[in-house]
């Protein structure tokens, strides 16, 4: 595990600083470190092991296999079955890169419904859009501007994103702000 500064994480926390009792969703799976950090700030944390459920539901990295409407709806019920406007923030991490186009569209639409207007999300995307495989990470919050990052292996992304495609992906949201890191990760803070 390597510790690294994260301007995106700092930007995410800047928007919720000074507030208490917020509801945050972490799609990277439950880690004691993230649970403790968020709850020590006075917030509630919900966790979903998004990539594990993705593998269980679709069983493959092939984006074409992620286009069945019945399986997409099943996946949404397993991961994002929450009332409208429940969350004040979402830690997406790097999970969106592993979703095929149909599933990605459905997930972003569902996220738009379950976050409150004016809330924030943090997402990471690899900045090299020519890679055939990308590192898959686990993220543990150290401080409001620092993460412990561990590589869990490499996976074939369903799609890679440039800045324009990220802006288009979150076109129904209020704003998108980019931070480029040394590790060729693009950190993105999205305002609903």
CATH superfamily heading: Vaccinia Virus protein VP39
| Amount of helix | 25-40%
CA-CA gap between termini: 32 Å
Number of domains: 1
Oligomeric state of the chains? single chain
The CATH class, by name, is Alpha Beta
- Kindly report the spatial arrangement of strands forming the biggest sheet: 3-2-4-5-9-8
- Give the DSSP E fraction (strand runs of 2 or more residues): 25-35%
What is the name of the CATH topology? Rossmann fold
Q: Which class of secondary structure composition applies to the elements?
A: alpha/beta
Identify low-pLDDT runs. Answer: none
N-to-C SSE series?
A: EHEHEHHEHEEEHEE
Report the major sheet.
6 strands, mixed
In DSSP terms, counting alpha (H) and pi (I) runs of 4 or more, how many helices? 6
Q: Shape, please?
A: globular
Whole-number mean pLDDT: 92
Output the radius of gyration: 15 Å
CATH architecture: 3-Layer(aba) Sandwich
Q: What's the SSE blueprint?
A:
Blueprint: E1 2-5, H1 7-16, E2 23-26, H2 32-40, E3 44-47, H3 50-58, H4 69-79, E4 87-93, H5 101-114, E5 115-126, E6 134-143, E7 146-155, H6 163-169, E8 175-180, E9 185-191
Describe the structure.
With 192 residues, this protein is α/β, with parallel strands linked by helices. It has a single domain, classed as 3-Layer(aba) Sandwich (Rossmann fold). It has helices at 7-16, 32-40, 50-58, 69-79, 101-114, 163-169, and strands spanning 2-5, 23-26, 44-47, 87-93, 115-126, 134-143, 146-155, 175-180, 185-191. A six-stranded mixed β-sheet has the order 3-2-4-5-9-8, sandwiched between helices. It has a three-stranded antiparallel β-sheet with strand order 1-7-6, with helices on both faces. The longest helix has 14 residues, at 101-114. It starts with a strand and ends with a strand.
């Amino acid at each position: 595990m390597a510790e690294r500064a994260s301007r995106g994480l700092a930007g995410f926390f800047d928007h919720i600083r000074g507030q208490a009792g917020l509801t945050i969703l972490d799609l990277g799976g439950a880690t004691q470190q993230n649970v403790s950090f968020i709850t020590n700030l006075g917030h509630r944390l919900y966790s979903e092991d998004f990539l594990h459920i993705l593998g269980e539901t679709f069983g493959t990295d092939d984006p074409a296999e992620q286009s069945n409407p019945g399986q997409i709806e099943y996946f949404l019920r397993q991961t994002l079955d929450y009332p409208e406007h429940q969350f004040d923030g979402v830690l997406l991490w790097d999970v969106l890169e592993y979703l095929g186009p149909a599933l990605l569209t459905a997930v972003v639409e569902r996220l738009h419904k379950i976050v409150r207007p004016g809330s924030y999300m943090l997402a990471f995307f690899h900045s090299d859009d020519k890679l055939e495989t990308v590192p898959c990470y686990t993220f543990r919050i150290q401080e409001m501007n620092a993460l412990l990052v561990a590589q869990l292996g490499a996976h074939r992304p369903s799609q890679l994103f440039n800045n324009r495609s990220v802006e288009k992906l979150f076109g129904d949201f209020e704003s998108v702000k980019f931070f480029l890191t040394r590790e060729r990760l693009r950190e993105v803070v999205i305002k609903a």
